[in-house]
Amino acid sequence: MIHTLAVEGYRSIRDLTVELAPLTVVTGANGSGKSSLYRALRLLAESARNGAVAAIAREGGLGSARWAGPPGKTGPVSIRLGFAGDGDGYAVDLGLPVPSSSLFGNDPEIKREVLFSGPMLRPAGVLADRAGPLISIRNGRRLEPALEAVAPYDSMLGQYADGPLIRMRERIRRWRFYDHLRTDADAPARRVTIGTRTPILGHDGSDLASALQTIQEIGVNGELAGAIDAAFPGSRIGITDDEDGRLWLKLTQPGLRRPLGTTEFSDGTLRYLLMAAALLTPRPPELLVLNEPETSLHPDLLAPLAGLITTAATRCQILVVTHASALADALGDDAHRIELIKEEGETRVAGLGRFEAPAWQWPKR
Q1: 160 to each of 9, 79, 83, 131, how far by Cα in Å?
Q2: Contact (Cβ atoms closer than 8 angstroms) between residue 155 and residue 113
Q3: Long-range contacts of 101-104 (CB under 8 A, 24+ apart)
Q4: Closest Cα to residue 13, out of 347, 351, 339, 345?
Q5: How far apart are CA 259 and CA 237, in angstroms?
Q6: 311, burial (CB in 10 Å: exposed 0-12, middle 13-18, buried 19+)
Q7: pLDDT digits 0-9 by tens, 218-265
Q8: What is the distance between the alpha carbons of residues 9 and 323, in angstroms, rounded to a whole number?
Q9: Phi, psi at residue 320, to the nearest 5°?
Q10: Using an 8 Å Cβ cutoff, are 235 and 224 in contact?
Q11: Which of 64, 96, 139, 264 is the most buried (most CB within 10 A)?
């Protein structure tokens, strides 16, 4: 489980360190920095896939993604991201590229990466250290240089096959994010697709019928039916196949003479079913992150959604980023609540002084 998430120099976040719990809900007004915190966590996940540099370049380069507020302390331009929790922690520092004739001048460079053990970076706990192109790996009591250098646009997590680095890479790659589940008329979840066992709902929800059927066959008995009944009393889903192996998802509701198909679902109904498929997965990740899961939902569905989230939080760590204070309230004492505010252009945690944040130490260049 992740206990601490740290971000510095990214968009509206000058310097933010937050504590995470088994279930954490991030709230705040529009523009308070919720999306920045969410995207920072996604950038951390991209590091394990060697995609953080490209992700920042897609945002317009370091100039667009870096701290947007007034200048503070002097020093090099930097975006720093890190986390620590059970076992090892990781921090990465991205900075301006060395001037060159390359046409990829918007790509930031990875200036420093550190993999460490324990809740905070300390010299004795460093397992792997990357400064510029050079990597050092712990061997007993010493850090020894690796034989291979790494390019400035590559993460050591993706490029070096050492035990601790492989474990961290695979750990981060198992994080799961849901933020692009469409419910419009052309949404992938409304299409009929070939059925196949699907323990993990796809990022676009196109395999919804397969995911729900997989939950019914190998998930916790009765949880899906209970979640449907809690949201739509007396209703039930049915999934059938045709001769071509395609799965048809139907919803039977009291008072209707025939079941409804996916093209007839309201946006809210489809959204709730997508959330049920994501949260009741038979293969829970270490970390599951939901960005605005309440979108399109009627207020009456927030309590059933909260029930789904709290159930899932008994199996994996969950972070929810939401505009809906009603959803955060419905999660109640089961969730650690972080309310973000904007003060003088800077994202901060409401009610938390600068010296009350969790302890954190960044690696120096």
Answers
A1: 27, 23, 20, 14
A2: yes
A3: 104/57, 104/153
A4: 347
A5: 9
A6: middle
A7: 999 899 999 999 999 999 999 999 999 999 999 999 999 999 999 999
A8: 24
A9: -115, 125
A10: no
A11: 96
Question: Residue 143 corresponds to which amino acid?
Answer: L
Global model pTM greater than 0.90: yes
Is residue 340 within 8 A of residue 33, CB to CB? The reply is: yes
Residue-wise burial string across 34-63, b where 16 or more C-beta atoms lie within 10 A, e elsewhere = bbbbbbbbbbbbbbbebbbbebbbebebbe
CA angle 32, 23, 331 (to 5 degrees): 80
Tokens of 253: 């509701």
- The one-character DSSP state at 132 is T
**What's the Rg (C-alpha) of the chain?**
22
Phi–psi pair at 68, nearest 5 degrees: -100, 0
Amino acid identity at 336: H
What phi and psi values does residue 70 have, to the nearest 5 degrees?
A: -70, 155
Estimate the share of the chain in helix, then strand, then coil, as percent rounded to the nearest 5.
30, 30, 40
Angle between helices 302-312 and 223-231 (to 10 degrees): 160
> Which residue's structure tokens are 């809210």?
268
